[in-house]
């Protein structure tokens, strides 16, 4: 860059003197707006100006605050809308909005994978998993294998607010729900009972049993375990792999992050788990850092997919830590998914990540993942489609 000598300044200044009043006006205006809490208007304008030119995984794509973002489009957008509209009331907290959104999906039985009457286990019973987390205190509350209570996300919030615990499970979670005024009722519907009867008539296929007798690929059991030899490492690794039982059922969890206009954040997850699961199975949904995670200083994450695999990696904790290390939301999501793919190339996963400015991105594997968001002055929810990461690219790096 050429140096400007003192003798040149006298020539340059008269040419640009007329810009000084404009610069002074802009500085004063920005300070005035900031003093009255209108900094979000500036954020919204800058995001709107660049939205059309940037990909969903780029920074600068925030729609403004308040904002809600969650896994999946389609029927799940009803939850996005409900949570976002609730935030237009300034007295609604980010935690309130997450509860509103997940409760909407529970009541609507979103895609049959959230709420009552979906994903029956081997005993034909629907059980629920849920977790909710406050991004300021970093406290979370969760329920796992919750029986006979529809309002899983609300019971999880009761764990957060009325205990010093993080997770309650099974019948004891049901007892806690009843003590806190929730209705205990049968979660089975006519449709779920019919579905389970058809599954049993088809010799209980597919199922999640391995290394048992009789052969789980053609029998409903009862099963007895077959002893394994862990000293034969090659054979042992092979024996622990799942059987080829076709595409898994029931992975459309709702995981949601809410950003209040003040900047506070919360996250939550609700699901009825994997269909045909072994009774007592708990997936990643109620696990803090796996189903969802939030740190208001940095951002939040929501996940969906094969929970039995994903919970081994805590992908949402990883994604938020990636944000802390300077990655963009899209980069943070991709890194979390790639870590799983390196060990489990066939895993189905979806990760949505948002930073505390509302910039967002996602990544997935094994399927085309979608996520939905609404924020700022948006009149309707937008749905983003995320193609699966190319597994071949992992080995070419």
Explained architecture:
With 397 residues, this protein is an alpha+beta fold. The chain has 13 helices and 14 strands. It has helices at 6-16, 19-35, 39-51, 77-87, 94-108, 152-162, 170-179, 190-201, 233-239, 307-310, 315-324, 329-343, 391-395; strands at 67-71, 127-134, 140-147, 167-169, 212-213, 224-225, 254-259, 265-271, 292-295, 299-305, 349-355, 360-365, 369-375, 382-386. The strands form 3 sheets. The protein has an 8-stranded mixed β-sheet. A 4-stranded antiparallel β-sheet has the order 9-10-11-12, with helices on one face. It has a two-stranded antiparallel sheet with strand order 5-6. Helix 4 (77-87) runs antiparallel to helix 5 (94-108). It starts with 5 loop residues before the first helix and ends with a helix. The model is unreliable at 1-20 and 32-56 (pLDDT under 50).
Task: Give short descriptive properties of this protein.
single chain, alpha+beta, 36% helix, disordered N terminus, eight-stranded mixed beta sheet, four-stranded antiparallel beta sheet, 13 helices, globular, 397 residues
Mean of residue pLDDT values: 87
The main sheet orders its strands as 4-3-2-8-7-1-13-14
Please bin the fraction of helical residues: 25-40%
Q: Give the SSE string.
A: HHHEHHEEHEHHEEHEEEEHHHEEEEH
Ordered list of secondary-structure elements with their pairings:
Elements: H1 6-16, H2 19-35, H3 39-51, E1 67-71, H4 77-87, H5 94-108, E2 127-134, E3 140-147, H6 152-162, E4 167-169, H7 170-179, H8 190-201, E5 212-213, E6 224-225, H9 233-239, E7 254-259, E8 265-271, E9 292-295, E10 299-305, H10 307-310, H11 315-324, H12 329-343, E11 349-355, E12 360-365, E13 369-375, E14 382-386, H13 391-395
Parallel strand pairs: 3-4
Antiparallel strand pairs: 1-7, 1-13, 2-3, 2-8, 5-6, 7-8, 9-10, 10-11, 11-12, 13-14
Helix pairs in contact: 4-5, 5-6, 11-12
């Amino acid at each position: 860059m050429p140096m400007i000598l003192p003798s040149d300044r006298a020539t340059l200044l008269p040419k640009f003197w007329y810009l000084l009043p404009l610069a002074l006006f802009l500085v004063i205006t920005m300070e005035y707006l900031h003093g009255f809490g209108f900094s979000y208007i500036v954020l919204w304008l800058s995001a709107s100006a660049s939205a059309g030119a940037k990909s969903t995984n780029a920074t600068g794509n925030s729609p403004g605050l308040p904002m809600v973002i969650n896994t999946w489009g389609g029927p799940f957008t009803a939850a996005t809308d409900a949570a976002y509209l609730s935030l237009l009331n300034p007295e609604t907290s980010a935690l309130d909005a997450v509860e509103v959104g997940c409760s909407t999906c529970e009541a609507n039985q979103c895609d049959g994978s959230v709420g009552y009457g979906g994903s029956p286990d081997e005993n034909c019973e629907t059980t629920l998993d849920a977790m909710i987390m406050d991004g300021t205190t970093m406290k979370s509350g969760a329920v796992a294998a919750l029986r006979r209570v529809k309002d899983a996300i609300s019971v999880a919030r009761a764990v957060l607010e009325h205990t010093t615990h993080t997770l309650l499970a099974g019948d004891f979670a049901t007892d806690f729900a009843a003590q806190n005024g929730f209705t205990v009722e049968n979660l089975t519907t006519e449709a779920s009972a019919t579905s389970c009867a058809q599954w049993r008539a088809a010799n209980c296929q597919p199922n999640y049993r391995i290394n048992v007798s009789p052969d789980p690929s053609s029998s409903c059991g009862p099963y007895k375990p077959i002893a394994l030899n862990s000293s034969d490492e090659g054979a042992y690794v092979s024996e622990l792999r799942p059987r080829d039982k076709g595409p898994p059922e029931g992975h459309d969890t709702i995981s949601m992050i809410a950003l209040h206009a003040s900047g506070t954040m919360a996250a939550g997850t609700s699901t009825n788990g994997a269909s045909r699961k072994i009774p007592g199975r708990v997936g990643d949904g109620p696990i803090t850092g796996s189903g969802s995670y939030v740190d208001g200083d940095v951002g939040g994450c929501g996940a969906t997919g094969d929970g039995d695999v994903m919970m081994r990696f805590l992908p949402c904790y990883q994604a938020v830590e990636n944000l802390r290390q300077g990655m963009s939301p899209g980069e943070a999501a991709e890194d979390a998914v790639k870590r799983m793919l390196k060990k489990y190339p066939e895993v189905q996963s979806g990760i949505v990540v948002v930073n505390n400015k509302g910039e967002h991105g996602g990544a997935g594997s094994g399927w085309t993942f979608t996520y939905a968001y609404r924020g700022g002055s948006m009149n309707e929810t937008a749905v983003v489609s995320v193609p699966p990461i190319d597994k071949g690219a992992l080995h070419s790096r």
